[in-house]
Amino acid sequence: MAKMQKHTKPGGYNVIGVFTDRLPATPDNAPFTHSLFAVGELPLKYKDWEIVRHQEGTFTDTHPGGIHHEHAYERIIARRQ
């Protein structure tokens, strides 16, 4: 993320979405949840930028085989000063 920020010109934008640790991992998802963002971590990484939009929540997903579960996410649009 630091590399992306470094290469963004002043006045430019970063648009980012990440999965967060708001929800506990489901058994089918657990192997892939070791590097989730903590809730609130994403906007902290942009504390010196203008946060144009911030959204945090959950959504239901279905994987092949009919496995249903929820994902927690956080999204921001940030503008470099």
Could you please describe the fold and organization of this structure?
The chain is mainly beta. It is built from two helices and three strands, in the order H-E-H-E-E. Strands 1-3-2 form a three-stranded antiparallel beta sheet, with no helix packed on it. The model has no long low-confidence stretch (mean pLDDT 92).
Shape: elongated
Strand order of the largest sheet: 1-3-2
Count of alpha/pi helices = 2
Write the H/E string, N to C: HEHEE
Structural class label: mainly beta
Low-confidence stretches: none
The whole-number mean of residue pLDDT values reads: 92
Helix content: 10-25%
Main sheet specs: 3 strands, antiparallel
Number of beta-strand segments: 3
Distance between the termini: 17 Å
DSSP strand content: 35-45%
User: Taking Cα atoms only, what radius of gyration do you get, to the nearest Å?
Assistant: 15 Å
Features:
81 residues; three-stranded antiparallel sheet; elongated
Summed up, what is this model?
With 81 residues, the chain is mainly beta.
Task: Compile the SSE list and pairings.
Blueprint: H1 2-6, E1 13-19, H2 41-44, E2 50-63, E3 67-79
Antiparallel strand pairs: 1-3, 2-3
